[in-house]
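Give me C-alpha coordinates for this 96-residue protein.
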Amino acid sequence: MTYGSGSAPIESTHLQAAVEGAGLRFTWDADARIEVRSLGAEVVIEANAAGLRTLAGHLLVLAGEGVTDGAHLHLEDGNGLEDGSVGLVLERNDEE
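Here you go.
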Protein backbone atom coordinates (compact mmCIF):
# COMPACT_ATOMS: atom_id res chain seq x y z
CA MET A 1 0.00 0.00 0.00
CA THR A 2 1.28 3.47 -0.81
CA TYR A 3 1.02 6.36 1.63
CA GLY A 4 0.92 10.06 0.83
CA SER A 5 1.29 12.95 3.22
CA GLY A 6 0.14 11.96 6.68
CA SER A 7 -0.75 8.29 6.85
CA ALA A 8 -3.76 7.93 4.56
CA PRO A 9 -3.22 5.29 1.89
CA ILE A 10 -3.46 6.57 -1.68
CA GLU A 11 -4.24 3.27 -3.36
CA SER A 12 -7.13 0.95 -2.64
CA THR A 13 -6.77 -1.59 0.07
CA HIS A 14 -8.79 -4.77 0.44
CA LEU A 15 -10.40 -6.44 3.41
CA GLN A 16 -11.40 -10.06 2.98
CA ALA A 17 -14.88 -10.54 4.40
CA ALA A 18 -17.47 -13.30 4.52
CA VAL A 19 -19.23 -12.41 1.26
CA GLU A 20 -18.93 -15.76 -0.49
CA GLY A 21 -15.14 -15.47 -0.39
CA ALA A 22 -15.08 -12.09 -2.12
CA GLY A 23 -13.20 -9.14 -0.71
CA LEU A 24 -14.63 -5.76 0.12
CA ARG A 25 -12.80 -2.84 -1.46
CA PHE A 26 -12.20 0.17 0.75
CA THR A 27 -10.70 3.18 -0.99
CA TRP A 28 -9.15 6.40 0.27
CA ASP A 29 -9.24 9.83 -1.35
CA ALA A 30 -5.67 10.89 -2.11
CA ASP A 31 -5.65 13.80 0.35
CA ALA A 32 -7.66 12.13 3.13
CA ARG A 33 -6.68 13.04 6.67
CA ILE A 34 -8.50 11.33 9.55
CA GLU A 35 -7.66 11.61 13.23
CA VAL A 36 -9.46 9.83 16.08
CA ARG A 37 -9.08 11.03 19.68
CA SER A 38 -10.54 9.66 22.89
CA LEU A 39 -11.64 12.32 25.36
CA GLY A 40 -12.82 10.03 28.12
CA ALA A 41 -16.58 9.70 27.61
CA GLU A 42 -16.39 11.04 24.04
CA VAL A 43 -14.62 10.07 20.85
CA VAL A 44 -13.74 12.78 18.34
CA ILE A 45 -13.30 11.91 14.68
CA GLU A 46 -11.68 14.88 12.99
CA ALA A 47 -11.17 14.80 9.24
CA ASN A 48 -10.77 17.03 6.24
CA ALA A 49 -13.34 16.87 3.41
CA ALA A 50 -11.45 14.05 1.68
CA GLY A 51 -11.28 12.15 4.97
CA LEU A 52 -15.01 12.53 5.56
CA ARG A 53 -15.74 11.27 2.03
CA THR A 54 -13.40 8.34 2.69
CA LEU A 55 -15.16 7.40 5.94
CA ALA A 56 -18.57 7.75 4.27
CA GLY A 57 -17.39 5.41 1.52
CA HIS A 58 -16.18 2.85 4.06
CA LEU A 59 -19.57 2.90 5.79
CA LEU A 60 -21.39 2.50 2.47
CA VAL A 61 -19.24 -0.53 1.61
CA LEU A 62 -20.13 -2.14 4.93
CA ALA A 63 -23.82 -1.30 4.40
CA GLY A 64 -23.79 -2.90 0.95
CA GLU A 65 -26.05 -5.68 -0.24
CA GLY A 66 -24.73 -9.12 0.67
CA VAL A 67 -22.26 -7.93 3.31
CA THR A 68 -22.71 -10.14 6.35
CA ASP A 69 -22.62 -9.44 10.08
CA GLY A 70 -19.11 -9.19 11.40
CA ALA A 71 -17.60 -7.62 8.28
CA HIS A 72 -15.34 -4.88 9.58
CA LEU A 73 -12.44 -2.55 8.92
CA HIS A 74 -9.69 -1.66 11.41
CA LEU A 75 -8.22 1.83 11.14
CA GLU A 76 -5.17 2.52 13.28
CA ASP A 77 -2.42 5.03 13.91
CA GLY A 78 -0.28 4.89 10.77
CA ASN A 79 -2.74 2.60 8.95
CA GLY A 80 -5.41 4.93 7.60
CA LEU A 81 -5.38 7.33 10.56
CA GLU A 82 -3.07 10.19 11.43
CA ASP A 83 -0.18 9.53 13.80
CA GLY A 84 -1.27 9.64 17.44
CA SER A 85 -4.84 8.51 16.69
CA VAL A 86 -6.61 5.86 18.74
CA GLY A 87 -7.82 2.82 16.82
CA LEU A 88 -11.24 2.78 15.18
CA VAL A 89 -13.18 -0.30 14.09
CA LEU A 90 -16.11 0.02 11.67
CA GLU A 91 -18.21 -3.15 11.90
CA ARG A 92 -21.54 -4.30 10.49
CA ASN A 93 -24.02 -5.81 12.95
CA ASP A 94 -27.64 -6.33 11.82
CA GLU A 95 -28.81 -7.91 15.08
CA GLU A 96 -31.41 -5.97 17.03
